[in-house]
Amino acid sequence: MTGLAMPKPDAATLARRVEIVEDMKIIVPNEGVVDAVNGMRAFESDGLTAYRQLPLVVVLPETTAQVARILKYCNDRNIRVVPRGSGTSLSGGALPLEDAVLLVMSRFNRILDIDYANRTVTAQPGVTNLGITHAVEQEGFYYAPDPSSQIACSIGGNVAENSGGVHCLKYGLTANNVLGIEMVLMDGEVVRLGGKHLDAEGYDLLGIMTGSEGLLGVVTEVTVRILKKPEAARALLIGFPSSEAAGQCVADIIGAGIIPGGMEMMDGPAIRAAEDFVNAGYPLDVDALLIVELDGPGPEIDHLIGEVQRIAQENGSTTCRVSTSDEERMSFWAGRKAAFPAVGRISPDYYCMDGTIPRKELPKVLAGMREMSERYGLGVANVFHAGDGNLHPLILYDANNPGELEKAEAFGSDILKLCVEVGGVLTGEHGVGVEKRDLMGTMFNEADLDQQMRVKCAFDPNHLLNPGKVFPQLRRCAELGRMHVHRGQMAFPEIPRF
Q1: Which domains does the chain have, with CATH numbers?
Q2: Minimal CB count within 10 Å: which of 71, 100, 257, 441?
Q3: What confidence tens digit (pLDDT) does each residue in 213-224 have?
Q4: pLDDT at site 493
Q5: Considering the entire predicted model, what is its pTM?
């Protein structure tokens, strides 16, 4: 596959492949199983295409009952399972395993219920993010989380990765907009968490599932909150002579108590690539560009526009345009939404990173990335959710040049270590997957990781769901319960043990 360390394939499972494939065809008939090599090539990686691996078999169920039967079958026979949505994940979270059933949820693509009175939509996990907004926009509603891949990414995948997007600063991530799910556990049990009501009783299991990266269960239904479209929205396009000045402007806007509907930042390389790609009218003589969207009542927007302009001028802005129509506002966003494919036109390959930092550290981290770029001899284009400090540096490299992928990986690792060093975290919305798995120790100590592993063990005691992802070290659940005896003395000897 690659040089990436993954769980050793189970020889017994590989030896039973023909039998497993035939059994899957019984559970999911009518072309619901893909077992030919050429057919499985389409599923060999997710959006992190640097890593590829053919699965044991690809299965595309259509009903919750089929998912339950597949998981129970695999659990009873100790067969690994990797869940997959649309495959847009950028952290290798849906990377197949040689001895695992790849459970693809793309056929779960129906909206089941639209409830305007309760402002909810219930959808199957294969419905696209943008599909939910399209389903309700005629009544003046929308679904707030809007990842750049929203035209393709699935709502089930959004739950798995706790995805965000341009509007997450004001309206929250997926976790803040999901009200309930139906899910299937590894033993085939179907459970429901939450629903249309405001909050669920008991432990916040819904919160645990959101962002669990396919390690705890397979989501088969999602209920999300929809919002009324704001009365008005306008955007500012603000240019700066340096990324550091733009970063400081972001911190000052939030510090002034202004919460924009969205606040995004692009640096020089990203600006030029996006402008060449979509002709959005971006200024090309600036080193950094902020897009600040303000929404709400008209008079409030007018006041906040003046405040943002004042703060931008204090931070040395050299250009500022305010949208005068919805069409112009959307053109401002068109370049940002297309930034990832646009950068693909200026470099044979790029490595998309994802880390989150405190906003006040933006100038320091941006300066640090510039120094790393010079040290590694690789370019970097920055496109990110500036308002909440979620960075998406795109490291430019050419995989055809020996050693460049490894340099890009090392560069990305240093960026994420810097994020943690300044008080941030390893991921904002792309997840840990395999990309950041071996960096978990820079953010968590062994006790932290063991506690997280205990949650995994409660849902999937045999570690059959998406193994090799998130946790840097594979271990059995029994190992977490081991008792440490030091010089013949157990810790807390006065506690009764049974």
Answers
A1: 11-104 (3.30.43.10), 111-228 (3.30.465.10), 236-262+271-341 (3.30.70), 344-438 (3.30.70.2740), 449-498 (no CATH)
A2: 257
A3: 999 999 999 999
A4: 55
A5: 0.90
